[in-house]
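Structure first, sequence second, as always.
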């Protein structure tokens, strides 16, 4: 069933959009990510203009993240205090990122730059995730199904000033590193239309030293508000949020997130990370090929609206 998207100005199969939303929602529930780093490139592939994909993809992240975080609230695996500090940095980062995005748009280079951002970030993160996941998977097979975890040693996040106690995470660290992480994620959210979970989750584990059990829920909590703020700014300044596209993606995302939280408790975390890393690398490769291969039509003409 074809449906016309008024802002994107293209016709797309409605069931395809529901399916894309469901897939990204599934990943959101499984990994604690908003899923925008996959949703936005997938929208590129089906012909959605990058500026519209970024703004509308951020909107879809809100629903899938909200659906997933409710389950974690029920399990008491959300560190609200840590999430609030990350959020403070994230909102500032979104404001700065919007300035950068609008500047690139004024130069007429936003579509190319957004795709280049995705290739660089997805490629880097995907390769690092894949190597780490393979090592973790091999280690779990040698040691057993539940390998012992080593307690993190004292590092720079414990030395900096402005320390805060995060009881749910069992941490007493400086508030500056979470603010910096949130700020960086906010910039990416504005420019790339992502929630930033694919960067935030590893940073929360390896930099802040948060327990894995509270990382997913806390990440989703922060993503909800950052993605919502990103959508609001894009809608009010660039008018690139396609409501019809957003609604279809939202419906699929909410349903998929519920299934994702159920799948996550049944599969080994190491196996899930390998799958996610592989998916990231595939999407990155497709984006890179689209940028490198010469298109069949070098020029496109649009109707000027004149008689």
């Amino acid at each position: 069933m074809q449906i016309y998207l008024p802002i994107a100005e293209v016709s797309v199969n409605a069931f395809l959009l529901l399916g894309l939303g469901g897939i990204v929602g599934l990943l959101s529930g499984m990994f604690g990510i908003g899923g925008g780093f996959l949703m936005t490139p997938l929208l590129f592939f089906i012909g959605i203009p990058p500026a519209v994909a970024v703004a509308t993809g951020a909107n879809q992240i809100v629903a899938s993240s909200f659906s997933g975080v409710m389950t974690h609230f029920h399990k008491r695996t959300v560190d609200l205090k840590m999430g609030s500090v990350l959020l403070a940095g994230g909102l500032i980062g979104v404001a700065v990122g919007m300035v950068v995005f609008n500047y690139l748009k004024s130069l007429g280079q936003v579509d190319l730059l957004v795709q280049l951002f995705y290739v660089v970030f997805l490629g880097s993160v995907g390769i690092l995730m894949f190597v780490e996941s393979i090592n973790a998977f091999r280690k779990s097979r040698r040691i057993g199904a539940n390998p012992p975890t080593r307690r993190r040693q004292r590092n720079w996040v414990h030395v900096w000033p402005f320390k805060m106690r995060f009881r749910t995470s069992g941490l007493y660290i400086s508030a500056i590193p979470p603010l910096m992480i949130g700020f960086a994620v906010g910039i990416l959210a504005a420019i790339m239309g992502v929630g930033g979970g694919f960067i935030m989750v590893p940073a929360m584990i390896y930099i802040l030293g948060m327990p894995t059990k509270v990382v997913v829920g806390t990440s989703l909590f922060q993503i909800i508000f950052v993605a919502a703020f990103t959508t609001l700014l894009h809608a009010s300044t660039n008018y690139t949020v396609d409501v019809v596209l957003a609604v279809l993606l939202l419906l699929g995302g909410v349903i998929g997130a519920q299934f994702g939280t159920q799948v996550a408790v049944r599969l080994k975390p190491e196996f899930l990370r390998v799958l996610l890393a592989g998916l990231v690398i595939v999407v990155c490769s497709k984006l890179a090929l689209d940028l490198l291969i010469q298109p069949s039509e070098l020029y496109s003409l649009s109707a000027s609206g004149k008689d």
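Margin note: Strands lie at 2-5, 10-13, 163-166, 171-174.
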